[in-house]
Amino acid sequence: MNLLVVAATEFEIKPFIENNKSADVLITGVGIPATVFHLTKQLIQKEYDLVIQAGIAGSFTDQLEMGSVVVIKADTFGDIGIDEHENFKTLFETGFGNENDFPFTDGWLKNNHEYFAHSSLPVANAITVNKITDDKIQIKKMIEKFTPDIESMEGAGFHYVCLQQKIKFLQLRSISNVVGERDKTKWKLKEAIMTLNVELKKLIKNIM
Looking at per-residue confidence, does 70 or 87 come out higher? Predict the structure, then answer.
C-alpha cells in the first residue's frame, strides 16, 4: 500500500517521523491555503492508496478529554461566508453555492471510506477556521451554527483536496486544548502529541 502521512507541522508527528524514516511524509505548513497547495502538488506527483492527516486540535466540548484522539467523519469551512448584523451566514446560506455541489454533502465534507472500520477511535465532526479566536461570542456562534466537536486550521482543506482527487483519506486529531483558551500553560500539547503518534502508529499497523 502506498501511504502518505500529512501534518501541518513536523512538531506534531515528530515521533512518527523519527521511527519511520522511509515513510512518505508531507509537512504542509499551517492553514488552509498551504494545505491545499502542497497536498494537491504531492498527489499530482505520486499516486497513493490512502492519505492520513494527523494533528492537534481544540475541542468545543468537555466530552473530549485532553490528549484523547478522534477520527473526523465530517469537516467544513467554519468562517467562509458573510458576517453582517451580528449574524454569520455560510456561502450556501447566502446563495453563492449549493450545499450539495461536489464535494459537499449538506454543506459538509464527509468521509465515507471503509478505512473507518480499521479504527476504534471516537468519531467526531470538525470545523476548519482561518483565524483562531478567544472571543466567547464568536465561539458561541460557531457552536450554534455547526455543532462541532473540534476545531483545526487545516482539516477541511485536507478533506476537500482528497474528495476532489477521489483518494481515500483519514483525519486524526488529538485534543490539546479547549477552543478559546489562549493560556498555553493550560494546554496539554505534550500529552496530545504523544497519544496522536501512538494512535497513528496503531492505525497504520491495522491497515497495512
Answer: 70
